[in-house]
């Protein structure tokens, strides 16, 4: 059976499973729609949390980023996993004990202000909509490559699938669908990794294969990879730091960490369990399920890098002199996987020196001796462009694995993107229907009408997400990290202060959220060339200098925005009236670790 047919069968079967679960787990009340009735067992909630949290960025992009950056790419592993631990230990149990449906509802009640809730909704929408662009883009990439349709068609199909199980099932349908999606995505990620680790090192465990010797050679995989990338003019794989800035790497890691802890769609998962103790338990299970993928990612990244260079520049594996012409792959003899990925536009070749061969090296190397040798060999610049997003999806094809493994990877990539997209849409829907419609504009709305409003809000959110996936704005396309920065600079500080500072008042929280979100968005927009005045880029207001703030990149600026948020909040707090006594007592009660009784701000 050919690859295309197998892919259709595997992906089609997974979609049928998701829709079937949604039909079985239809939401019949607002409680089931928003928090799955609060009755999800910890193990299943941990699995659903893993699927919700491991987005297309984790499944498709992370290993590619590590593959491109080497050691420096570890900041994504440290930031995302560290952020999850921060969320599980510091926030989730207390938020579950508070007993509300959404993050804006917590902020509104804790800071006794509908204005605070409304500002939180704006922050949530900014982070969630930015994040969802990456998920819809991932859906388009996977569909366009594996199902032979255009990216646009792929996004439309993805919208339809999410609509089927998210709008009708709500959080209940999403939760049990995400359990199935986790199983699909983890098998899709680990099975190819096991095959490739066996091929390269003889070790079936990728985590151990990463530190093992190459099969038949007395050299480790990482040592060989270091040798190969240095010969091609790149920095050492095991020591390279992005932009040669450890400060930026540190701040980037912190931004991802606290951004992860502030992501509303992940926090909502902890509202779905019966008790506070179950929130802690499900957090532990989720960490185990997440670790299966995250401990595999570095091995996938390194092995994919090795296979890619081995395909394009086989001479680099057999001798140090990579400049010999026979070491470059003839374009007409390129393997089938390269031909297939070229159709997506994510892999490109330009014959700069007209020799009909593919030269892949670092033409921006700062080593003059290396560049002199490359020029003497007749090279006119690196000719191969490989988008980081294809590393995981193309890896089984590069390694010549069976067709069913390639089809499984396609289903896994789609499961990762769709599961997170559904969680984000649920967060958006709840913010609009529960926090704005019921909380601000129509407090007396019936449960039936609130449920209808939630479904309409989600349907609208799906259409907006689809539109942004089809027409991604320049500032957010492919920059999922910006969503973490927005959550880090706005929601995380407000949640932390709401739990651990009983003296923090509504004026401080509102001012902090606005300040943190604003300064982060200004910095991001400035670097992404958003037009402020017709014909004049906003960046020009800063003298046209990128990363002007101590060399910190826009994707890492969320941590700085969070510091601004905290600083402004405490300054304003000191200048205004402290919270009412019953609010301070509520905060004290929330922090008591025993018991599962929900608390609120009522007198």
Task: Briefly summarize what is shown.
With 603 residues, the chain is mainly α.
Structure characterization notes:
This protein is mainly α and 603 residues long. The protein has two domains: 3-32 and 41-92 and 103-303 and 400-481, Hydantoin permease; 304-398, no CATH class. The protein has 25 helices and six strands. A two-stranded antiparallel ribbon has the order 1-3. It has a two-stranded antiparallel ribbon with strand order 2-4. A two-stranded antiparallel ribbon has the order 5-6. Helix 4 (56-69) packs across helix 20, helix 9 (170-201) runs antiparallel to helix 20 (403-441) and helix 20 packs across helix 21 (447-470). The protein is globular, with a radius of gyration of 25 Å. Residues 316-325, 474-478 and 530-544 have low confidence and may be disordered.
User: What share of residues are in beta strands?
Assistant: under 5%
**How would you characterize the largest beta sheet?**
2 strands, antiparallel
Q: In CATH, what is the class of the largest domain? A: Mainly Alpha
Sequence stretches where pLDDT stays below 50 over 5 or more residues: 316-325, 474-478, 530-544
Structural class: mainly alpha
Distance between the ends: 68 Å
Compute the average pLDDT. Answer: 81
For this structure, the CATH topology of the largest domain is: Hydantoin permease
Count of the separate structural domains? 2
- Widest β-sheet, arrangement of strands: 1-3
The count of β-strands is 6
CATH architecture of the largest domain: Orthogonal Bundle
Shape, please? globular
The helical percent reads: 55-70%
Tally of DSSP helical segments: 25
In angstroms, what is the radius of gyration? 25 Å
């Amino acid at each position: 059976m050919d690859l295309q047919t197998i892919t259709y069968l595997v992906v089609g079967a997974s979609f049928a499973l998701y829709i079937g679960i949604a039909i079985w787990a239809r939401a019949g009340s607002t409680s089931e729609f928003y928090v799955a009735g609060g009755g999800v067992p910890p193990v299943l909630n941990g699995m659903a949390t893993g699927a919700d949290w491991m987005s297309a960025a984790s499944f498709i992009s992370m290993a590619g980023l590590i593959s491109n950056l080497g050691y420096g790419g570890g900041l994504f592993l440290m930031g995302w996993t560290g952020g999850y631990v921060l969320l599980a230990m510091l926030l989730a149990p207390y938020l579950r004990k508070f007993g509300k449906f959404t993050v804006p509802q917590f902020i509104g009640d804790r800071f006794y202000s509908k204005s605070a809730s409304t500002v939180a909704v704006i922050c949530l929408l900014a982070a969630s909509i930015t994040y969802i662009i990456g998920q819809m883009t991932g859906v388009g990439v996977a569909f366009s490559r594996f199902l032979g349709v255009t990216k646009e068609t792929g996004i439309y199909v993805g919208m339809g699938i999410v609509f089927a199980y998210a709008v009708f099932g709500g959080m209940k349908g999403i939760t049990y669908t995400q359990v199935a999606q986790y199983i699909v995505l983890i098998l899709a990620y680990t099975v190819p990794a096991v095959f490739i680790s066996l091929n390269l090192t003889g070790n079936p465990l990728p985590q151990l294969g990463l530190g093992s010797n190459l099969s038949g050679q007395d050299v480790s995989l990482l040592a060989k990879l270091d040798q190969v990338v240095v010969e091609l003019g790149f920095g050492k794989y095991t020591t390279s730091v992005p932009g040669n800035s450890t400060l930026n790497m540190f701040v980037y890691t912190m931004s991802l960490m606290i951004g992860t802890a502030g992501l509303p769609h992940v926090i909502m998962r902890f509202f779905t369990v019966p008790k506070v103790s179950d929130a802690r338990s499900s957090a532990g299970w989720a960490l185990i399920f997440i670790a299966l993928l995250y401990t595999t990612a570095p091995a996938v990244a390194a092995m994919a890098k090795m296979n890619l260079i081995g395909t394009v520049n086989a001479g680099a594996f057999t001798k140090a002199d990579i400049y010999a012409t026979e070491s470059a792959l003839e374009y007409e003899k390129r393997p089938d996987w390269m031909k297939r990925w070229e159709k997506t536009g994510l892999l490109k070749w330009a014959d700069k020196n007209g020799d009909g061969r593919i030269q892949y090296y670092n033409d921006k190397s700062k080593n003059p001796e290396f560049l002199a040798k490359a020029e003497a060999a007749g090279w006119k610049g690196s000719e191969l462009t490989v988008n980081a997003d294809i590393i995981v999806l193309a890896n089984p094809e590069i390694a010549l694995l069976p067709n069913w493994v390639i089809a499984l990877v396609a289903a896994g990539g789609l499961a990762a993107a769709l599961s997170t997209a559904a969680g984000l849409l649920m967060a958006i829907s709840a913010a609009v229907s529960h926090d704005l419609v019921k909380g601000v504009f129509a407090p007396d709305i019936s449960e039936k009408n609130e449920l209808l409003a939630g479904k309409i809000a989600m349907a609208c959110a799906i259409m907006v997400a689809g539109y942004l996936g089809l027409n991604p704005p320049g500032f957010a396309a492919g920059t999922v990290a910006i969503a973490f920065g927005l959550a880090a600079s706005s929601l995380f500080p407000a949640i932390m202060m709401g739990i651990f500072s009983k003296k923090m008042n509504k004026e401080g929280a509102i001012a902090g959220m606005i300040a943190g979100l604003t300064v982060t968005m200004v910095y991001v927009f400035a670097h992404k060339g958003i037009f402020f005045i017709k014909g004049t880029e906003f960046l020009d207001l800063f003298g046209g200098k990128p990363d002007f703030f101590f060399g910190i990149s826009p994707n890492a600026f969320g941590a700085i925005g969070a510091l601004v948020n905290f600083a402004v909040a405490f300054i304003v707090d000191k200048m205004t009236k402290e919270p009412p006594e019953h609010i301070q007592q509520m905060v004290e009660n929330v922090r008591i670790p025993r018991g599962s009784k929900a608390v609120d701000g009522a007198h």
